[in-house]
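Chapter summary example.
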Amino acid sequence: MLAIRLRRTGKKGQPSYRIVVTDERKSVYGSYIEMLGHYNPETKAVVLEKEKVVEWMKKGAKPSNTVAKIFAKEGIKHNSIVIKKFRAVSKKELEAQKAQEEKAKAEEAAKKEAAKAAFEEQVAEEKAEAPKEDKLMEMAEKSIEDVKKEESAVAEAKADKTEKAPEKPAEESEKKKEDEKK
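The structure predicted for these 182 residues follows.
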C-alpha cells in the first residue's frame, strides 16, 4: 500500500523533511517513488505540488498523520486525509476507566446469573405442568413415593425402639438382682 510520509534530510540538529510517496512497508530512509514537496519545521515553510498530491491520493496513497496535518493547513481536501488526535491519559482517568469496566462486568455477570436462575425456574415449572405422557413413568414415581414413605415409617419405628430399649435392660437388671438376693 502506498503512503505519503516525511523523509528526514538536513544536518544534525537542523531537520528538514521531504514529502514523498513510498511503499509503507519500506524503510523511512529507503527509496521512494516520487517527491511531492518539502517541509522545514523551524521556519514552518511548506512547498508542495498540490496537483501531484491529489493525483497520488486518487490512486490510493494515504498520508501519515503529520502529513495530513500539513495538507489540511495548505488547504488540500480529500477523503483520505484523516487527522488522528492523540491524548495522554492520567492515572486517575485510567483508574476510573478500570473501575467502570469492572462495574460493568459485575453487572453483566449478575444479569447472566439472574437470567440463568429464571431459565431454570421456567424449566422446572414446565416439567411440573407437563402432563405425564407415559403411564409407566407415573407408576414408577408412585412406587418411589411409596418406598420413601415405607422407609420413613421404618426409620420412625427404629427411633421408637431405641427410645424404649434402654428401659428393658434396666428392668431386667433389677429382676436379676432380686433373684440373686433370694
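To summarize the output: Helices lie at 50-58, 65-74, 91-129, 135-164, 167-181.
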